[in-house]
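Team,

Forwarding the record for the chain on the shared tracking sheet. I've put the sequence and predicted structure together so nobody has to dig through attachments.
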Amino acid sequence: MAKCQECQKNEVYIHFGEDRLCLDCFNEIMANELGVEAESYPEGVTLRDGKGEVHHFRLRKRLDPMGIVMEAEEQASGGYHFQVFGDLHGDQGELFLQLISKAERGMAEMYVEARKFSNGQSSLSMKKDRMAGRIEWNPLDEDVPVLVVDGKSYAWKEIGKMLMSYEGFQVKLEMVDPSEEVRWSEREEKD
């Protein structure tokens, strides 16, 4: 991995103009320019999903002229990733709590379930006729992304197989900013 051009020790996190900087050096520059300090926060946190499985997250906080971005990225490759955005002069402790709360809500509902048939075959299917996830770069095929659902990466072929039982149905596809919450309508919540 490339090292930060400023400190020469941490991994590059962001391209800032011509510079390639780690998060600490970038935040220090932003703190000086914006007059806001990045308050300390834990480096990581461990949370359980809707099935009770444990997930370990690396936490990051980025100062930006538009506000403060906090992220929780699962340490497992292709896992969960949550983000919140707060006011530049807001309560950073409260922003941290919002991030943890968003991650807990985001992992509470599981969207994919494995089913095994009496003949020994298995398949994946959608629970509650809905799915939410995140689009990610696919290292095996740069032209087609993967979809991360329930903290696992799925190829589009796998998603397509899950959708085959819905042949003839209509589809509603909605993109949601990573800092926003995926919300279902009241009718969908009752299902």
